[in-house]
Write a structure and sequence with these properties.
Blueprint (H helix, E strand, L loop, with lengths): L3 E6 L15 E6 L4 H5 L7 E4 L7 E2 L2 E2 L3 H18 L3 E5 L10 H19 L1 H4 L3 E4 L1 H8 L1 H4 L2 H7 L5 H19 L5 E4 L10 H8 L8 H16 L3 E6 L3 H10 L9 E6 L4 H12 L6 E5 L2 H10 L4 E4 L11 H4 L10 H4 L1 H16 L4 H8 L2 E6 L5 H10 L12 H10 L1 E9 L2 E12 L2 E7 L8 H10 L6 E6 L10 H4 L3 E5 L3 E6 L3
Parallel strand pairs: 1-2, 1-3, 3-6, 6-7, 8-9, 8-11, 9-10, 11-12, 16-17
Antiparallel strand pairs: 4-5, 13-14, 14-15, 15-16, 17-19, 18-19
């Protein structure tokens, strides 16, 4: 794999700092004083790292009156840069070590600093493919005395200590990994010695460890981490060899961060765990490769890994559970650059889906089932407020995806400027499934047609195609590009009345002459 290019736009990052990147990247340096020129030009780089200099925002140990205007100006510059460049952008927020001579003044300035960083945080919603490098958080993690060096700052204009440089370097690499990783959809959790210490069947409710004392506090912290993952859009499921009724009773009577309803599917039985995982994948309609399995047992971990080759597995340490608490931050495919509204509602949407499945089993025909759902479809064309969600769908949808083309936020934003990007929100009587379908039309050609697996089997694609066809009077071309995962839609355009123009091993090409 060829090296990618990383460009630093900073006065405070020295060449000695970037030695940590030379092995994996070509490194380019730009002085922050040339920020207007740099951001107004087209540059051949994959990642732009902007480390903001405190001197632009502070004077005489207080925040400048124009600090917020500077962020506004920076936003406009970054938008100009985005129009000309596809590079992923990381921009730092601000950390500042106020001189400790007046506590009241410091408190007021810290309030202003928080507001300033909130303003910088808004850039991630204003500019596509932009994430925040949280230097403020890093400085608070180790303390300002360990993060900043006054002597280095005055002598060399290099304010960071060696410890800070290592932290910043690690954070940049982590963000780049997150940019490049496809986020997991489902976390599968064992119970005994995973969510609590001890074995319910042997130790009883009173004997398990989940309290304020070690090791119980470590398990409690781990549960809170799982709760956070759920809130960020990852679905939690249980895969455990236990008695179902006993575990349900435990959750209902034990005070724990995770509640019974936090789990979308609960496979609590004595069946092979690999089989349980396959069943969960089928019930959620997701791929095995979009799941990650946590267990403390070498036997169970190895059995699942040997049986399901595409799944990621994590062996937890039951002897010293505090070692488990750093795992989430180290796994880029559990992290996300942005959290969408759909992410926040993901678990409730899957729980609603379980209700639909129950109704389907009691309905005579598919058409009766679809009619009973009372489906409503809303759509938008080139809605940039939905850019993050559209990009998310484009880059993770595999099964109902006619071309499986992957695009960055900036590329989709460009399509919106000159073409048609349709986004579809699906609701029914059980709830709002959110933005779950995308169609991109470029020069009278359907470039992308995809739907989330959560809305399949309801003939929604037929209604979407009618909406697309109502937007044009010209011939519309399309293609189906084969992948290992999208065979279910191979004949979709044939069903819609498109004429097959050509066909080979890689794709089918179609055209529809408008009446």
């Amino acid at each position: 794999m060829s090296k990618k290019t990383i460009s630093f736009l900073s006065n405070t990052i020295t060449h000695s700092f970037t030695k940590y990147f030379n092995k994996d990247f070509y490194v380019i340096h730009h002085n922050l004083d040339s920020i207007i020129e740099t951001l107004n030009s087209k540059t051949d780089t994959d990642y732009l790292i902007v480390i903001l200099d405190n001197k632009f925002f502070f004077e005489n140990f207080v925040i400048k009156s124009i600090a917020f205007e500077i962020v506004e100006f920076l936003s406009e510059l970054l938008k100009v840069f985005r129009k000309q460049n596809n590079a992923k952008i990381l921009i730092s927020n601000i950390a500042y070590d106020f001189i400790d001579i007046n506590s009241a003044l410091n408190i007021e300035e810290y309030k202003n600093l928080i507001l300033l960083n909130e303003k910088i945080e808004e850039l991630s919603n204003q500019v596509a493919d932009l994430a925040i490098l949280n230097i403020f958080n890093l400085a608070n993690r180790i303390g300002f005395n360990h993060f900043f060096s006054l002597s280095n700052s005055l002598l060399f204009q290099a304010p960071f200590t060696k410890e800070a440089i290592k932290l910043i370097t690690s954070e940049i690499k982590k963000k780049i990994d997150v940019f490049n990783s496809l986020r997991k959809k489902v976390v599968l959790l064992d119970l005994d010695n995973t969510l609590w210490g001890g074995i319910v069947g042997e130790d009883g409710f009173e004997g398990i460890k989940i309290d304020e004392n070690y090791p119980g506090i470590a398990y409690k912290y781990f549960q809170n981490q799982m709760k956070y993952l759920k809130k960020s859009g990852i679905v939690l499921c249980i895969v455990s060899k236990n008695n179902f009724a006993e575990i349900e009773d435990l959750f209902n009577n034990q005070d724990m961060p995770l509640k019974w309803n936090d789990f979308v599917i609960k496979k609590i039985n004595w069946q092979n765990k690999s089989q349980n995982i396959i069943e969960i994948a089928n019930e959620l309609n997701v791929g095995i490769d979009s799941m990650i399995f946590f267990d403390d047992s070498h036997f169970e971990i190895n059995l699942v890994k040997d049986t399901l080759e595409n799944i990621d597995v994590i062996k937890l340490d039951s002897n010293n559970p505090i070692n488990n608490l750093g795992i989430i931050e180290r796994l880029p495919f559990l992290n996300s650059i942005k959290i969408t509204i759909e992410d926040e509602n993901k678990s409730s949407q899957y729980l609603s889906e379980q209700k639909r499945i129950t109704i389907r089993k009691t309905t005579a025909t598919v058409d009766d089932f679809i009619e009973s759902l009372e489906i409503n479809i809303s759509y938008w064309i080139n809605n940039k407020s939905q850019l993050a969600r559209i990009t998310q769908l484009v880059n993770k949808t595999n099964q109902f995806n006619l071309t499986t083309k992957r695009y960055s936020e900036s590329e989709i934003s460009h399509f919106m400027n000159f073409n048609q990007v349709f986004s579809f929100q699906i609701k029914d009587k059980f709830g709002d499934m959110g933005i779950t379908a995308v169609v991109i039309v470029i020069d009278n050609k359907i470039d992308t047609f995809l739907m989330s697996c959560r809305i399949l089997g309801r003939k929604i694609e037929e209604k979407i195609m009618k909406i697309i066809l109502n937007q044009t009077t010209k011939p519309l071309s399309a293609e189906y590009i084969r992948t290992s995962k999208n065979s279910q839609v191979e004949n979709l355009y044939d069903k819609f009345g498109f004429r097959l123009v050509s066909k080979d091993k890689s794709k089918n090409v179609y055209i529809l002459e408008m009446q």
